């Protein structure tokens, strides 16, 4: 599903955010991406979303070399990836339903598909009863669940979560993790960058640890392995 071959990303200032890394992630895997601040986690995610270009190396996503595609194909690539952020990024003037529907509208999905899929996505995250609420009427955990519904409503093969529990208290964080795990069990590949040591240690999933732009650890049923 995701294959990085000897990928290096050097920014204009000469910083090598990723230094010759090779990583393989199969369809359906659940992967934690860990490492201290500055290790290269965000750069890794941005490369997959084509927000930055590698300086060298190849990145294969769903069998396609995304380092070679034309820029007009970028929206098509992004469509195959759902993204969840630490700070939710919901539209404040749209309801829960409209926030999720919007992700389908912008890709030009037919109205009848929107009508069908938005309620399914909201049900998946346990928020069917909040469809008409606005984001500021929801708790942090509920807002994150809306953002997860938005990320999965187009049925992406890959869900990227960048520190999704960073703004949540521990109980709420676990509710969100259960939902992400359920989405993974239905076949969606999950890549989650996190500093949540407890969650990583309890869930015993694959852990890829970055440090100074290199893979220092890649373990099935791994642990967080850092102090901070
Ligand atoms: P992490 O997400 O693990 O904190 P990042 O990928 O954000 O790591 O950063 C990796 C390294 O690249 C850091 O040294 C950071 O300062 C540097 N970096 C990130 N983005 C840029 C940029 N746009 N320009 C220059 N350096 C950057
Ligand atoms: P239309 O007015 O053409 O039906 P929409 O389907 O976008 O337009 O929905 C209009 C309003 O109805 C939205 O503000 C939305 O909050 C609400 N809504 C639509 N479908 C649902 C649903 N399945 N559950 C809850 N609210 C819904």
Annotate the secondary structure layout:
Blueprint: E1 2-10, E2 16-25, E3 30-34, H1 41-48, E4 56-61, E5 64-65, H2 74-79, E6 81-85, H3 96-105, H4 111-124, H5 140-152, E7 158-162, H6 170-185, E8 189-193, H7 197-203, E9 206-211, E10 214-219
Parallel strand pairs: 3-8, 3-9, 6-7, 7-8
Antiparallel strand pairs: 1-2, 1-4, 4-5, 9-10
Helix pairs in contact: 3-4, 3-5, 4-5, 5-6
Bound molecules: adenosine-5'-diphosphate (ADP) (2 copies).
One adenosine-5'-diphosphate (ADP) binds near residues 95, 98, 101, 131 and 132.
CATH topology: Rossmann fold
CATH class, please?
Alpha Beta
The amount of helix comes to 25-40%
Count of spatially separate domains: 1
CATH architecture: 3-Layer(aba) Sandwich
Pfam families: ABC_tran (PF00005)
GO biological process, one term: cell division
Keywords: ATP-binding, Cell cycle, Cell division, Cell membrane, Membrane, Nucleotide-binding
Subcellular location: Cell membrane
Task: Please give a handful of descriptors for the protein shown.
Rossmann fold; alpha/beta; 228 residues; four-stranded antiparallel β-sheet; six-stranded mixed β-sheet; globular; binds adenosine-5'-diphosphate; single chain
